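Entry type: protein chain
Record version: 2
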Amino acid sequence: ASIPSSTVASSRAPASIPSSTVASSRAPASIPSSTKALVPSFLSCRSRLQGAMATAVDTKAAMRSFKQCVKDKGTEACIPERKAVVAGASSAVKAECSPFVEDFFTCFKHRYALSSCSDATVSKMLKCQEQYSSALLSTQ
């Protein structure tokens, strides 16, 4: 069972992807040489971690910082801290509840015609988001 040559990825980047985003043939030794040319650099662990989502711990720390800022300076002076809390909370909730959101959008895409789609699909997603965000933002 051979793979047709038209489906095998080439080592050259497509015209729409800059060549700087494709891994060079000098990839780390941990990657087998047969796949070095096929692994774009934008899929490497290092580049994914650089823009990593905020964790619950980061969000709780940002929430404490925001509360302290409001206490010290007032609400108007703490806009950057508030933005950090909102971004961190949404990122953490998105990561934690992603299976429920995927189920919901699968049902939505199929106009709720799948046998697994019901009101429970939506309620599970909303329950996850509400419970996790409540727990996250109830930082003391």
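Comment: DSSP finds five helices and no strands in the chain.
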